[in-house]
Amino acid sequence: MAKAAKKASKKKPLAGAPVPPSFAPVVSAFAGDRTVSRRRMFSSENVLSVNGKIFAMLGRGSSLVVKLPKARVDELVNAGKGKPFDPGHGRLMKEWVAVEAGAASWVALAEEAHRYVWLGRR
Question: What is the DSSP string of the chain?
Fold first, then answer.
C-alpha cells in the first residue's frame, strides 16, 4: 500500500462506529456542524476535527483531551481540573490538556477547543 493511501486510511471518518457513552454528548454537540468530523487518529478511535485539524479526542481511560491556548491549559491544570497531555512519548504537549470525567464540562471544553482551532486556522 502506498504511503498516501496508508495515511488516508488512518483518517477515515467513523460515521457508523459506536460512540462511547462518555464521549456521546461531545459528539452530539457537533452533530449539525458540517465542518466537524469524527475520525480515527493516534491511539483513539474518537477524535473530532474541524477542517482536518484535531480539537478534541477521547483519551486513555476516561479523559477528554482538548487543544486550548497554553494559558488556558495552565489554568485548568492549576485549578486541578486537568493534567498536561502526554501522547505517550514522555513529552508533554503545551496546548493540550486531559480532563477526567466530572472535573469540568466536556461539552463546554470541546466547544472552547473548537473555537480555538477554528479561529486559529482562518
Answer: --HHHHHHHHT-B-TTSPPPTTTHHHHHHTTT-TTEEEEEETTEEEEEEETTEEEEEE-SSSEEEEE--HHHHHHHHHTTS-EEE--SSS--EEEEEEEETTTS-HHHHHHHHHHHHHHHH-
Q: What is the pLDDT of residues 67-114, one digit of tens each?
A: 999 999 999 999 999 999 988 888 899 999 999 999 999 999 999 999
What would the 3-class secondary structure string for 29-60 be? HCCCCCCEEEEEECCEEEEEEECCEEEEEECC
pTM confidence score: 0.82
**What does residue 67 show for φ and ψ, rounded to 5 degrees?**
-100, 120
473548537: which residue's cell?
114
**Residue in the structure block whose three cell numbers are 504511503:** 3
